[in-house]
Specification:
Length: 273
Amino acid sequence: MPGSPVQELIQNGWRQGSSIPAGVLSKFLGELPQFWPPPGPDDCFVVVSQTCDLLHHCLEAEPLAEVLLCRRISQADGALLYRKNPRRLHVEVTNHQGAIVLEALACEKFSIPRTCLAGLTPDSELALPSGVVSTIAAWLANRYLRPAYPDAFNERLRPVRKKLDDLQKREGRYFERLLLNLEPPDEELGDGDTYSMVLWCVLHPDFVADESAISAAEQVADSLLTILQPLRGVEAEACEVRLPAEVSLHDLRAFRDWHTEHVTVKQEFEPPT
């Protein structure tokens, strides 16, 4: 219907991945969930609702839009790029100011009435490319789809968590994902039994034609294996670099994503006092 809120959403160009400065939305709504720390002047909210839902003709059927707080930070953490952590995500975006890095926390997603966006326009200075939008959507979906590894296996990684975390922070940008073949994959083993693991470090597509990057990535894989091999109760058989084209659907039946949340040092966010 012409002049309806839905028509305004369409005319104003709202899509999944559209962004709006945090201060603008806060002023328009009057009240936001309590975030800590509070959103800053350079932070924004990104619409994560799928476009068909966002622009659905019936407000009664789709009354809400989901938005995600994205904070501007100074530098990307390699362990948080490319969906490798289920709770925190770093994405790199280029706008008129040059390259910027945004950080999102999965817990900082909330819903607002779709009608709130009808009177607003997306921020033209921060247009997220389709690849970044897909990364954010897949990261959120993976909160429900990611594998859960045995507690006994995760506990046996405890002595090397800090080393793994540090290596991922420095060099994690080479890898789009880490794939783990763990045997047995779901059992809680006792102290006398051993897990066997094979780790594939899947190279990010940006580096597949870069021989120096491939060589550096192989050194990182060797370092990962060196860290893992001394573990008790875990036999690290191999840690190899794979090109994306070398990973088949058949492989994904045996190898599952290994998110750095399983191995990274826990980071706390202090609430306001």
